[in-house]
Structure formats: C-alpha cells, structure tokens
Amino acid sequence: MKEITSSEFELEVLGGGKVVLDFYSTECPPCEAVAPKFEGLAALYGKDIKFIKMFRQQNKPLAERLGVRSSPTLLFFDNGVQLPVTLTGGIKRSDIIHQLDSMLSKERVQEIKQEIKPTVSEFDVLILGAGPGGLTAGLYLCQAKVNTVLIDIALPGGQVSTTHEVSNYPGFIDPQPGYMLSHNMSEQTKQCGTIYKVAVDVTKIDLEKKEVVIDEFETVRAKMIIIATGTSPNLMGVPGEKELKGKGISYCATCDAKYYGDKEVVVIGGGNSAVEEADFISRFASKITMVHQFDALTANKQAQEKLFANPKTSILFSHEPRSFVREGDKMITEVEDLKTNTISKLASDGVFVFIGMKPNIDLFRNKLELDQWGYIKTNEDMQTSMPGIYAVGDVISKKYRQITTAVADGTIAAIAIAKELN
Ligand SMILES: Cc1cc2nc3c(=O)[nH]c(=O)nc-3n(C[C@H](O)[C@H](O)[C@H](O)COP(=O)(O)OP(=O)(O)OC[C@H]3O[C@@H](n4cnc5c(N)ncnc54)[C@H](O)[C@@H]3O)c2cc1C
Predict the structure, then answer these.
(1) pTM value?
(2) pLDDT over 90 at 27, yes or no
(3) Which residues make up the CATH 3.50.50.60 domain(s) of the chain?
(4) Which residue, 214, 264, 286, 351, could crosslink 200 as a Cys pair with Cβ 3.0–4.6 Å?
(5) Is 128 a pocket residue for ligand 1 (Cβ < 6 Å)?
C-alpha cells in the first residue's frame, strides 16, 4: 500500500496495471472504518492490484477532476482507464472485494480466496448495533474498564443519524441535526476506547456460543452479548413496492426529501413519523398528498396541528395503497377508498412510506423469548431469556421507543454487566 500526491498520479495510477485509489480525509469516521479493510485487502490482493491512498484535502483539484465529492471514495483503474464503479460512504469489505474480484480472472480469485486466514478475537462484551442504545452501553462499559467491541452492519449512529432534527434530547437548548447528535455519541464512545467494527457484513450469530462471524472470516467472541439492533421500516407488501424501492419509493425523508424540490410527493401513513416527516418534506416539495388507512391521524395533537396548518399538505383518509408503477418520470400510486372500495390513481414524482417499524431480529429469531409483535423480552436489568445475552433500545419489548429510552436501556445493561463481570 502506498500514499501518493497529485504529482505522482500519472505515474502511479495511470501508468498501467490495476489500481484501487482511496481518497480519504482526516476527522472522517467512515474513512477510519474503511482504512483497516483497505489495509487487509492490500495484503491479500497486493500482488495483482496496486493499493494507493491519497489525502483528499491536500489534493482537491485532482479529486474534483475525478468526480470525488466525499470521503472516503474508492476509485478503480485498469491500464490507465478509470472503471465506472465508485464506492463511497459506509463501504463494506464485501463491496470492495466484489469490485476487486471483477478485475481479476476467476482462477486468480480462487487462489486469493484460499489465502484468507480466519481470525478469532475475544472480548468481555460484544455489542451488536451502534445506535444510541449500543453506543451508550459501549460508553458505560468502557468507562468501567470492560473490554468491549461494537459491531454494526452500517456506520455508527443508528436511526438518529438519518433523523433530520432532534428537539427532545436533553442537554441541548436548540434542536440538533440528527447526524450531529449521533456523531457526538459515537465519538464519545470511540474516544473512550471501545473497539469498533462497523460497516461489516454480519455473517452468523451464535448466541449460545456467544460468537459473531463478520465478513465471513472474522470470528468475534465474548463473555456477554448486548443486542441493540433497533428496528427497520415496515414494508407495505403491495405490488411494485420491492421493485421501486430506492427508485421512487423511499423510507427516509432526511436522506431523500432534498431530491423533491418543487415536486409532488405522496406520503403513506398517519402516525408521528409520517406527520413529522411530511412536515420536513414540505420544505422541498410543492405538494404532499398523505394517504392514511384510518379516518383520523394517529400522530400527537401538536404534530397534527402543524400539518393541518401547512398549505402544501392534503390528506386522503380511509385510503390504502394497492400498487405502485412507474410511468415515465411519474410514480403512479393506486389507492383504494376503504369506505366505497373504489380504486383511483395518484400521480406524483415520488412516494415516502412511514407505516411503522419491525424489530431487527432475523439472525436470532428463534433463540430468545419474544413478545407477540416479535420484540425481545427483557427483565429490568435488560437480560433476555438466555443467560449472558442482554438486549436494549428499540429492539426490546417496551411501550415507548425514543433516543432517551434507548440510552437508558444501554446504561442499565452496561452497569448490570459490569457488576456481573466483577
Ligand atoms: C424518522 C424517525 C425520527 C425519529 N425522531 C426521534 C426524535 O426526534 N426523538 C427521539 O427521541 N427519537 C426519535 N426517533 C426514534 C429513535 O431514533 C430511536 O428510538 C432510537 O434510534 C433507538 O435506538 P437503538 O439504539 O435502539 O436503535 P437504532 O438507532 O435503530 O440503531 C440500531 C443499529 O443496529 C444496527 N443493526 C441492525 N441490524 C444489525 C445486525 N444484524 N448486526 C449488527 N448491527 C445491526 C443498525 O445498523 C443500527 O445502527 C425517530 C425515529 C425515526 C425512524
């Protein structure tokens, strides 16, 4: 692996052979997450592909010329030609491998795969999920000098990092951008010394053995596990949804509302998330039609009043979506009037869906006692039905799912575990 500057670009990158070029920045958590993966893969693929790093801030004109807009960004070159794939953000090891493999012959890829040596690391506590619940548990355990590892399939921060504004987290007079709040939480835990393994593929979870396999080859063992995997948005399960997910149907206003400046949008749902996110989307969109299955919204009064006062928003009560299709650059949402059973079509530029959440328990669904909605049952110390396995945050059975309640769960689990380990 080699670090270069713009002046060496012609020779080192365009001069021939296969090259992967990492534009990184300092004070960049996603860059820190990708660095060990890049280094590990350089050792594996280094005979066939040159691994080169470049500091983006000091080589800005070249970065801009190559279309690099954020850090980290990985570009790939073959014999002086830039390949069409660009990796950026929370880059997984498997994403890089996929691209590297496509640059080599099948036989060579097989030879390289045989060289991969499985690794095993051991910790006192393994936390699965780096949202507010997991990060808080990590902080408390670290401060109690408990050797802890945090594993997340994405970058740290959880749902807060995609929440546009948080106005109810104590300690801040003004509303905080969600990504800043989660960044600060994550940095506090990381700077304490908790080990992070983030933007990884979680291949296998064995709760009995207290073992998690990441990126297929790395086994992480611990004496105790805290599950803090949170929830994911519910899908509607109607025709067209799967196919158009990310291509006109979105589940995240913070991520996608900005693409709908002066455009018309349909929002599905009527609870707090739907109403608050519709309010946010209205900063960009010219018109919002909400589709809600009941004849009244279920969001709190304050949020409802704000929505009713918003001239850009109208609501179709007692309607449910039946299908989605794309016609040219328009999204067509077919909706049924539940009172008359008549079907009509809504044309819009995009659809946002906010119809509740489901717990992320797929990799250990049958191992723990769950409530009737699939959330993990815990006792007051956040212990699950299996010894040594704790669970915190939105993934557990409880009445109120908020940042403050996830943070409280993480605190309790960490204190209980630190005492038990002592
Ligand atoms: C749109 C929206 C707005 C919100 N606004 C507010 C608000 O204003 N105030 C408030 O208090 N609350 C708000 N909430 C709720 C709040 O975000 C959650 O209660 C809180 O994030 C829960 O924290 P958590 O740590 O339990 O889970 P999450 O934040 O969901 O984090 C879970 C983490 O686990 C990871 N993960 C998932 N599966 C796995 C796996 N198999 N292995 C490893 N890692 C995994 C995920 O990548 C994620 O990083 C909002 C939620 C949404 C969706």
Answers:
(1) 0.85
(2) no
(3) 119-232+357-421, 241-353
(4) 214
(5) yes
